[in-house]
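ESCALATION

Customer reports they have been waiting on this structure for their group meeting. Please prioritize. Original submission:
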Amino acid sequence: LWSTLTSGETWTGNILNKKRDGSLFWEYAAISPIIDESGVIKKYVAVKQDVTDKKAQEEAMYLRANFDGLTGLPNRTLFDDRFDVAFKKAKRSSNILALMMLDIDHFKEVNDTLGHDAGDELLKMAADRMSKAVRETDTIGRIGGDEFSILLENFEGKQTVSKISQRILEAMAKPFLIKNKPCHVSASIGVVFTSGKLIEKDMIKKSADIALYEAKAAGRNCVVFFKEA
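Update from on-call: job pushed to the front of the queue and completed.
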């Protein structure tokens, strides 16, 4: 701001300002230097507009467009965007990514016996447990229903991914207290690494789905790593 003004130019932008009572508000400001005949800046003129409500509306629109309203996790759109960015970065650097597909086992039974509000509560609790089981740098997205995707980057060896998947399984296998009743579910996880012939995004997602299907076929409550063979 000051480098612009001292050069004699007008600065425009949003400022998080503070009122006399200490509360914060957003304002759009256009600040111009007033220069005298000798080229010296004598003072500044600022025209400002309170845009707090506008910023709040923009933030609400962004959240609705990119995050799941129930769990607060990235939705399919945002997850796909992050996966696309990570995939392009990995191709340039030849790094390996891991993509997990996860379904909550027996989730339909919870909805059928305890109601959809109980199912919603379970989804929120499950999302919280998953978030605590992964690293801060990992991305969890709710793709729809009881289906989640997890993107892992910058890991040291595939054993790291295996440990994370086991932490998720253990967290999901613990009873959930829903409507003061213990509720037992589990998770099926399919994992694929971006290596070998898996160089296209659609093929990576399809392979993770295949591994997830195999995890369910193997009795659920397990993780299956996709093998190209």
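Sent to customer with the following note: The chain has a mean pLDDT of 93.
Escalation resolved.
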